[in-house]
Design goal:
This protein is elongated. It is mostly helical. The protein has 23 helices and six strands. The strands form two sheets. Strands 4-3-5-6 form a four-stranded parallel β-sheet. The protein has a two-stranded parallel sheet with strand order 1-2. Helix 1 packs parallel to helix 4 (111-127) and helix 5 (136-147) crosses helix 18.
């Protein structure tokens, strides 16, 4: 017999089950709601984090761009003032990275402070009166305009007499007045060919070290890098004389023995122009007593100008164990230089029984220059090259012209022939020379001193002010034979001279421009800002 629970108890059990089921459902709904809320919370959190990260990145990028703009602004302002700004780290200067970090921590100046300093100096200049230098673009435009002129008019402007041209324009460089010791400008004139003078501080540091040669580049306690001289030697333009003067004014320990050119194992002349910037820095670091070197056979390495002190950014850079360079060269009347090269390499230093004529020498040298390569065994292959200075200071960009490759034909034809005239016109129309000439102008404009040898005997002051030298007794020497003061106008046939003048037109513009800079800075020092 089956026992049955009373109805009241059954009802109570059903009620209890419904209650338990209801509680379970309520808990399930609560749990489901909580989980759903957590998922929403997580999604909101991710969105908030993403947005925050975006804002942080945007702020960082804005600060970075602002810093770059400030840096560029400082650099451009320094460029327009007497200082051209370039921020160069120890990786360029070479050596002493750890030491640089230590020293720069104490001596570095913030970009905002530099900017303020440049603005103050710029404002002060606006309130000053005096003759002002031109921008590099103005200078290039002015000299390029001269180089494009008809040769007859250009010669009349630069050399006279006025009979060379029907109506000779005024001398753009005012050389007749400058040679008399006069300053042709006054007031607020802008001299459209005069470059800004490089910073004077490196010169002062170099002169301070003249009496302390025993401990120069190795002095880690100094607050700035050491300063040395880089001399760009144009063959047969006073290089031997400059080196002799260096030895008369500096201890022998500071100068390479072989004509001021460094040596390497197996190479008496290490051909500095072929070096990298890093190798040049390492040379001075590894030979701390050397404070001067020279490059003769290779073209000027444009990359070396990065070692010139340009602005307050460099002045505040501390001592990173590297070196700053003062750039010096000597330059000469282009045809007198060619005539000297002919006498030295074509006659005096030529073992052949039969010596070449000037025309033969120039043609052969032109063809050798056309085949010449960097570090070539034919080290003197370029000494007879037309527009030699333009080639040198353009970094070797300027090619040899057909006018030189066929020099015998064009120089021996007596009065200038139609073929020669046509070739000169073709050369003038060619665009190749323009880029090379522009580069040469920009390079020479940055040199601390370019000395025209024809002016140096009477005007030693610029070299004395720059390097502190005072002994100029041996200012004109040669390494072989007797000293000769060549005058191509009297030694060469006038027709040959005329053709050579046209063929070396670019170098004549550079030469007379250099003479004008040299005399303007000497005669107008009180007026120049």
């Amino acid at each position: 017999m089956i026992s049955r629970r009373p109805p009241a108890q059954q009802q109570e059990n059903r009620t209890r089950r419904r209650t338990r089921r209801s509680n379970r459902d309520r808990k399930r709904r609560t749990l489901t709601g909580q989980q759903s809320g957590c998922r929403g919370c997580s999604q909101s959190f991710v969105l908030v984090c993403s947005f925050t990260a975006f804002i942080v990145v945007a702020i960082f990028l804005w600060l970075s761009v602002t810093a770059v703009v400030l840096r560029k602004d400082v650099t451009l302002e320094a460029d327009n003032s007497s200082d051209g700004a370039t921020d160069r780290s120890g990786s360029i200067r070479g050596g002493g990275a750890q030491q640089m970090a230590t020293n720069n921590h104490a001596t570095a100046i913030k970009p905002m402070e530099l900017r303020k300093r440049h603005n103050e100096r710029k404002a002060a200049r606006r309130n000053e009166s005096g003759v002002r230098a031109a921008s590099i673009d103005q200078i290039v435009e002015t000299l390029m305009g001269l180089a494009r002129m008809p040769t007859k008019d250009l010669r009349a402007m630069l050399e006279g007499p006025p009979s060379l041209a029907a109506a000779a324009p005024a001398d753009p460089f005012h050389l007749s007045e400058l040679r008399k010791g006069q300053c042709p400008w006054s007031g607020d004139d802008v001299i459209e060919w005069l470059p800004e003078r490089p910073l004077l501080q490196p010169s002062e540091w170099f002169r301070q070290d003249n009496d302390n040669f025993a401990n120069i580049n190795g002095d880690k306690a100094r607050k700035h890098n050491s300063v040395s001289v880089y001399y760009e030697h144009l063959s047969k333009a006073g290089g031997t004389s400059f080196c002799t003067m260096a030895k008369a004014n500096m201890p022998k320990e500071e100068i390479p023995r072989y004509y001021c050119m460094p040596s390497e194992p197996g190479m008496l002349d290490a051909r500095v122009g072929s070096w990298s910037r890093k190798k040049l820095v390492n040379y001075f670091v590894e030979k701390p007593r050397h404070r001067l070197l020279s490059n003769e056979w290779e073209p000027f390495n444009l990359d070396f100008l990065e070692l010139q002190m340009m602005s307050d950014l460099d002045l505040a850079g501390g001592n990173d164990g590297g070196v700053y360079l003062l750039f010096v060269t000597t330059i000469r009347n282009p045809i007198n230089r060619l005539l000297s090269a002919y006498k030295f390499w074509g006659i005096l230093n030529n073992p052949a029984d039969e010596k070449p004529s000037v025309e033969e020498f120039l043609q052969r040298r032109g063809r050798r220059a056309n085949r010449w390569k960097m570090l070539s065994d034919d080290f003197a292959g370029n000494v007879g090259r037309y527009n030699f200075a333009t080639w040198k200071f353009s970094g070797g960009q300027l090619p040899v012209t057909k006018l030189q490759l066929d020099a015998e034909q064009h120089l021996k034809s007596g009065a200038k022939s139609a073929a020669t005239t046509r070739e000169i016109e073709n050369t003038q129309k060619d665009q190749v020379w323009r880029k090379s000439f522009e580069t040469a102008v920009k390079t020479l404009a940055k040199f601390d001193l370019a000395i025209p040898m024809e002016l140096f005997d009477e005007h030693h002051e610029p070299l004395q002010h720059l390097l502190g030298w005072t002994n100029f007794e041996k200012s004109h020497v040669v390494n072989m034979g007797k000293v000769q003061n060549n005058d191509a106008t009297t030694e060469l046939n006038s027709d040959v001279y005329d053709v050579l003048w046209e063929a070396n037109k670019l170098d004549f513009v550079l030469y007379y421009w250099t003479c004008a800079i040299y005399l303007a800075r000497l005669n107008c020092a009180d007026l120049l800002r």
